[in-house]
């Protein structure tokens, strides 16, 4: 099937899925969005596979060594026009909520997305912390959570209650913390604990458990740090700085 025709077939199927899901359940928009969203990811994945097969490379934007792993391989839709006439309607380039990225680029390039609402909220909070630091000459730290992981003193920032973000995995409220560079991160520990519990498996200490979220869901854990299993509990994975 020609690439362009295949693209429109995905869009039609996505629209029908959205329509039927909406008719079946008027009480929530979440399920309807996920159905349509899966169809659009499938269209992008098909285009990526075709592009890679023909060119031998991936259609990604430039990045640097310091780019966080889950933002390192952002899809460049300008390179995909022969396979995908336009970016998906939910893509950030089209005014949508998601930035499309690749994971496992070396062995099995797989399309995932970043929830840009999370990006916006973290960037806003980072800006407030930078302003605080410029004025006070120290970061608004509260408690030590682990080596290089700190809770945030939101009262010092003028908040009455600590802000949170909605998890793209569970819909629960996730908290923020600061890393060793006083940069804001999102605490995905409750979501990782859920996935570990449901898997019924145990994992070796040192294994980064964020991969479980990436394998199970279409979202990548943006603004995250590594987690691992230690003595049966999910904890921050802290690198040994002595190595």
From TrEMBL:
Signal peptide feature range: 1-26
Domain of life: Bacteria
Keywords: Signal
PROSITE patterns referenced in this protein's UniProt entry, alphabetically: PROKAR_LIPOPROTEIN (PS51257)
Protein name: Lipoprotein
Taxonomic source organism: Pullulanibacillus camelliae
């Amino acid at each position: 099937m020609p690439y362009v025709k295949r693209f429109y077939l995905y869009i039609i199927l996505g629209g029908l899925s959205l329509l039927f899901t909406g008719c079946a359940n008027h009480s929530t928009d979440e399920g309807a969005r996920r159905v349509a969203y899966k169809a659009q990811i499938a269209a992008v994945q098909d285009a990526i596979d075709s592009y890679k097969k023909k060119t031998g490379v991936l259609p990604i934007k430039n990045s640097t060594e310091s780019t966080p792993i889950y933002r390192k391989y952002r899809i460049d839709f300008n390179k995909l026009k022969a396979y995908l006439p336009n970016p998906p309607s939910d893509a950030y380039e089209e005014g949508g909520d998601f930035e499309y990225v690749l994971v496992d680029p070396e062995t099995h390039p797989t399309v995932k997305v970043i929830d840009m609402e999370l990006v916006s909220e973290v960037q806003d909070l980072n800006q407030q912390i930078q302003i605080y630091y410029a004025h006070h000459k120290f970061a608004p730290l509260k408690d030590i959570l682990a080596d290089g992981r700190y809770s945030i003193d939101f009262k010092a920032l003028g908040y009455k209650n600590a802000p949170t973000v909605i998890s793209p995995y569970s819909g629960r409220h996730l908290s923020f913390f600061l890393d060793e560079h006083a940069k804001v991160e999102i605490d995905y520990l409750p979501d990782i604990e859920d996935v570990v519990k449901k898997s019924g498996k145990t994992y070796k200490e040192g294994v980064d458990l964020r991969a479980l979220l990436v394998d199970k869901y279409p979202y990548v854990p943006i603004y995250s740090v590594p987690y691992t299993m230690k003595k049966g509990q999910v904890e921050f994975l802290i690198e040994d700085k002595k190595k």
